[in-house]
Amino acid sequence: MTASAPPATIRVPIDDGFSAARVWAMMLRYLFLLRSSWPRTLELVYWPAIQMILWGFMSRFLMTNSSWVARAGGVLLAAVMLWDVMFRGQLGVSVSFLEEMWSRNLGHLFATPLRPYEWVISLIFMSLVRVAIGVVPAALLAIPLYHYSIFSLGLPLIAFFSLLMIMGWAIGLAICGLILRHGLGAESIAWFAVFILAPVSAIYYPVSILPRWLQYFAWCLPSAHIFEGMRAVMFRGVFPLDHLIAAVGLDFVWLAAGGVVFLVFMRQARRRGALMQMGE
């Protein structure tokens, strides 16, 4: 009886040298990934362009209105904090939604009796909590640091806060719908979408500084009316009812549009069976 021969071993050559082909293969992978997701491509162009436009208009305004700087006081601080209310209101809805996608929990949620509008209400309440945690400490910190209190705006502050929150919710719901439609490749929209409105929201300068054709678009934004109203309160001590009424009406339009976008794409995702497939 002869002993069996040991099994043949396969030797895999190990190449420790540099390979330009492997580098190029990985570059192609990332290029294809970038090309397949328009939000990723848009993000590359977006931030430099928005910064240039926003601060370009700001510089133009300051150069032609030097007296405004002396009288501004806490206007810039108030504008920054109120803008953060809208941004965090939008982010509170979007991030709470994304957390369900990151944990692959969407399918499990809708295996329960949970209805979409009930989920939306919970996202809105969570947004309020996130805004309170983020904005209130910053507003209190501004008092000892800069001797400015945004609470000096009085009752108009409640209106400004509420209207900006509602606009943030509208944008957040639309973003959630887009993510449902395009998947997590579009999640970066949640972080930059609201800033595309910053140059035409008249945060740091009046709408009149914008080109005429852009002013028409600005007046379609609740945020433009709110920031114009804020400056009227701070400079003239007048609560502008025309801007308030316009902002309330536009907020309802934006919220309805955001809700429709979310519900339409949610229904499509459920029909396609995509809710179980979404995740990291």
Could you describe the 3D structure shown?
This protein has 280 residues and is an all-alpha fold. It has one domain. It contains eleven helices and no strands. The chain is globular, with a radius of gyration of 25 Å. 29% of the residues are buried.
Give a nutshell description of this structure.
The protein is mainly alpha-helical and 280 residues long. Helix content is 71%, strand content 0%.
What's the layout of helices and strands?
Elements: H1 20-36, H2 38-64, H3 66-72, H4 75-102, H5 106-109, H6 116-146, H7 155-182, H8 189-192, H9 212-218, H10 222-236, H11 241-272
Radius of gyration (CA) equals 25 Å
Helix amount: over 70%
Strand content: under 5%
Number of individual domains: 1
The SSE order reads HHHHHHHHHHH
Structural class: mainly alpha
Question: Could you give the count of β-strands?
Answer: 0
The dominant shape is globular
Mean pLDDT: 78
Q: Ends: how far apart?
A: 58 Å
Major sheet attributes: none
User: Counting H and I runs of at least 4 residues, what is the number of helices?
Assistant: 11
Low-confidence stretches: none
Keywords:
280 residues; mainly alpha; 11 helices
